[in-house]
Amino acid sequence: SVIFSKSQVAVFNMDEKLEKHYSLEKKISEGCFIVKDLKDGQCNKMVTFINKKKNPSIIFSESRVRMLAELDHPNLIRVHDVFQDSETISIVEDYLGKNDLGTFLFVNKDKITLDLVREILSQILRAVTYLHNNNVVHKLISLDNIYIFKGNLSPEEIRIKIGGFYYCDSFTPGKLIYEGLTFKPKDYSFIAPEYLQKKYNQKVDIWSVGVIAYILLIGKYPFSEGDSFDNLLNVSESEIPYPKESDPELVKFVKCMLKKDINQRPDANELLDCEFFQENLDESKYKLDVASLNLL
User: Which letter does DSSP use for residue 260 in this model?
Assistant: First the structure.
């Protein structure tokens, strides 16, 4: 049965079967397939199957699906359908290929310009501004969940979309969320340290964008890449290193996002007004060295 529908795009089906609306066409990865929409015959969507028992922290309640259905922004991947039974959650969303930001950086490691980085970060922050203005916190912004869907190396043409809304949640402006990390991310490098204090707000997303900005502008991870909880402990207990040879304006921009005090961390819309997006920085001091990054 359809619980919620907006423009006949995003629907939540409790008893409906995926097979009545889509056919599986090609396996992308474990539990993820390109699907054909049986209404129009197009293969521009994908489905991700999530085992409820193995992923108990992923919950798609009616309110969460309603929240996702109402999100509509050019820099966000669109969730089209969510099917659910006693064992599996099946999420149907836009398919943009394997063009995630990490892969894009690896393939184009010698061609990344400062203007391109500024455009990518600007689009990310516009999407985050939209989410936060709609009282949605993403929680898992990372290189893996940002996709290049249009253009290539031209700042004027490139377009990105943020996906991976498996753990997103609503929040009340001005109020903290009192809980710890309720999920196990693939990479802890992008997870904000305040989760350890079990007290956070939407600015966990700003921290994640700050880590991405650090990688793009300084050329390495703030700390070693980490797929374990120990990496998050390291982040919470250590000072973030900033290479002396890095451009001071770049460091200034990144540093404000990686403030451990969430009250000192700016909002996404404030970041868009930073000098970083308005002034001509010295590109001769900018170098992206991805040789040491585990981006694939």
Answer: S
The 8-class DSSP code of residue 43 comes to -
| DSSP label at residue 267 | P
Two tokens at 266?
């700016």
β-strands 146-150, 136-137 pairing: unpaired
Q: Are 223 and 235 in contact (CB under 8 A)?
A: yes
- Local structure of residue 210 (DSSP, 8 states): H
CA angle (146 as vertex; 114, 64 as ends), nearest 5 = 140
C-alpha closest to that of 22 among 10, 8, 36: 36
Residues 75-129: tens digit of each pLDDT = 999 988 888 888 888 889 999 877 899 989 888 877 888 889 999 999 999 999 9
Under 8 Å between Cβ of 130 and 73: yes
- 7 touches 70 (CB < 8 A): no
CA-CA distance, 116 to 103, in Å (whole number)? Answer: 15
pLDDT digits (tens, 9 = 90+) for 167-202: 899 999 999 999 888 887 878 889 999 988 899 999
The pLDDT tens digits for 41-77 are 999 999 999 888 888 877 777 778 788 888 999 999 9
Distance CA 173, CA 261 (A): 17
| Contact criterion met (CB below 8 Å) for 109 and 151 | no
Residue 5 confidence class, pLDDT cut points 50, 70, 90? very low
Closest C-alpha among 98, 95, 100 to residue 48: 95
Alpha carbons within 13 A on the beta-carbon side of 61? 8
- Side-chain-side CA neighbours of residue 47 (13 Å): 23
Q: Using CA atoms, how far apart are residues 86 and 49, in angstroms rounded to an integer?
A: 13
